[in-house]
Amino acid sequence: MTQVIEVRNLHKTYGGVTAVDNVSFTVEEGEIFSIIGPNGAGKTTVIESLIGLRQPDSGSVSVLGLDPQTEARKLGNRIGTQLQEAALPERMKVWEALDLYASFYEKSVPWAPLLEKWGLAEKRNSQFGSLSGGQKQRLFISLALLNDPQIVFLDELTTGLDPQARRATWDLIRAVREQGKTVVLITHFMDEVEALADRVAVIDHGRVIALDTPDNLIANLNRETQVLFSVPNGFQAARLENVGGITAVNQYGQQITVSGNGPLLANVAAALAQHNIAPADLRVQQANLEDVFLALTGQTIRN
Amino acid sequence: MKFFLKLTYMELKLQLREPVALFFSLAFPVMVMVLFGFIFGNEAEERLGGYGQVDLSVPGYIGMVVGTIGMLSIPTTLANYRDLGILRRLRATPLGSSPVLWSQVAAQVVMTAAGIILLFIAGLAIFDLRIPNGNLAIVPAALLSAFSFFAVGFVLAGVMPSARTAQAVGMAIFYPMLFLSGAAMPRYIMPDFVQQIAGLLPLTHVVILMEDLWLKGTWNLTSVVVIAIMLILGLVISRFTFRWE
Ligand SMILES: Nc1ncnc2c1ncn2[C@@H]1O[C@H](COP(=O)(O)OP(=O)(O)OP(=O)(O)O)[C@@H](O)[C@H]1O
Ligand SMILES: [Mg+2]
Fold this sequence. Notes:
The complex is a heterodimer.
Chain A: E1 3-14, E2 17-28, E3 32-36, H1 43-50, E4 58-63, H2 72-78, E5 79-82, H3 94-102, H4 111-117, H5 133-145, E6 151-155, H6 163-178, E7 182-186, H7 190-196, E8 199-204, E9 207-212, H8 214-220, E10 225-230, E11 246-252, E12 255-260, H9 264-274, E13 280-285, H10 289-297
Parallel strand pairs in A: 3-7, 3-8, 5-6, 6-7
Antiparallel strand pairs in A: 1-2, 1-4, 8-9, 10-12, 10-13, 11-12
Chain B: H1 2-16, H2 19-40, H3 53-84, H4 86-91, H5 97-127, H6 138-159, H7 163-180, H8 192-198, H9 202-216, H10 221-241
Helix pairs in contact in B: 1-5, 2-3, 2-5, 3-5, 3-6, 3-7, 3-9, 5-6, 6-7, 6-9, 6-10, 9-10
Adenosine-5'-triphosphate binds at residues 14, 17, 19, 37, 39-45, 84 of chain A.
């Protein structure tokens, strides 16, 4: 595996505000690397430092072996970006934007298939200002892929997309990765991270406070699993107490909640079968990335 | 080079799709000319050296076009591009900053030329405009004036916090200057002290420069110096004040 991004001790302040505080990480070729964190945590600033839009106060950044500050043009030709806050002129047409932006790169792919792929073929002649939020977003993705980049930076790509478009986007991101490209993805959707990311960095107050695979982050939380189901009248929950891995059993009338660790669902199901009970609406509740996020970054809203 | 031409051509197309901006930079000077032309006519008069009123006003209208584009179109367009994140998106390409700015200049030079050509077409078609000696020096003079006012436009775009303020401040400076400078109506009908104040305004010097070249074929050096100083100041100040976001 080769490293395509290397960040060492990155610092960035705006006036007196520290936006990025000693951030280090590496991204490997072909990875989908996600960055999550509360509003104002510094995610966008990190990505902007990687693509050369921000000059770090200190620390070093290397992308595809290039320095984003001094080799901006070279790097610009090999990466694609979708920025969180960006726009095109209101009256620029979709095809004009693609045609224009394609001319900025040394090499570019034909843009008509991109429009097709991202469901914008019908909007070819529409002005940017007349597009819906999701259509604008899809146009920005098309622009990010115009130069067949080696790394794609996506800052809140799916914000503003409807559920269909969001799922379709996930498929397309996977397809982008399958072409061997690396994807760096900032998002506030935890399901997106679970579905896509190989590794995820959690950033808070400008610092990386966790960096691992989504599965490991969830496992490290050490949260108990809960199995919930309802039982016929007269069933005594106490009969489940010697099931392996159980730590607690709660019963509210017909509703039973079993908490514990290990293969809890299998154990509970086996015990119920032993008692000849067929539970209705059997559900499992497990910790997910959202729990990790809240556990790591707290519950208070950031400004 | 191809990207620069595309960018400039795109910018021109965008300008042509803005009816309001188009009205002020292209139609308004022609309207003023036609209006005054119908009121005063364009008969050759002895006291005007054998020219008509419209013939003598053309240099002023050229100043009006240059000033409108430099002080209204450019600051509003650029500040708007900045406010909306359009410049940000452009910066995230290998393009670099200078083609973005130069394509804006190139497109606005074309707009200025179009505005001036429209004046000539309307003048010739409606008022049988008399073109004195056909002095081509007005072309470089108009370019110098345009660059100088464009530089002021870049300063306004950079200094003003938003596109709306850039537009409002641009208007607040430009319109009084327009009427005092002789660009919209002759200076000689104004009281002496007003004429003296007008002599301090950059737009007045554009008008004087144009008038002298147009009628006598001579370069007014004072005016050239004033306009050149404004150009240099504008370039230096905008170098430090221009913001991409
Ligand atoms: N151009 C700027 N000037 C001044 N302060 C800024 C600027 N950009 C960001 N900041 C500040 O830096 C901090 C980090 O901002 P950043 O945009 O990187 O956060 P983020 O993690 O991307 O947040 P969000 O999830 O809301 O997009 C914030 O406190 C923000 O107010
Ligand atoms: Mg952000």
